[in-house]
Amino acid sequence: MTVLDDARAALATGPLCDSCLGRLFAERSFGLANAERGEALRVSVALEDDEPYEPDDDCWVCELESERVEWWAEQAATAVRGYDFETYQVGTKVPPLLEENDTLLREDIGFEADAGEALKTELNREVGKQIGDITGAEVEFGRPDVQFTLDLATDEVDAKVNSAFVYGRYRKLQRDIPQTKWPCNDCNGTGRWQGEPCDGCDGTGYRYDESVEQLSAPVVVDAMDGEAGTFHGAGREDVDALMLESGRPFVIEVDEPRTRNVDVEALEADINEFADGKVEVEGLRLATHEMVERVKELDASKTYRMDVEFAEPVSDDDLQAALDELEGATVHQETPQRVAHRRADLTRTRDVYDASGDLVDSTHADVRIHGAGGLYVKELISSDEGRTEPSLTGLLGVDAVVTALDVVDVQGEDEPFADEEFFRQ
Question: What proportions of the chain, in percent to the nearest 5, are helix, strand and coil?
Answer without folding.
Answer: 30, 30, 40
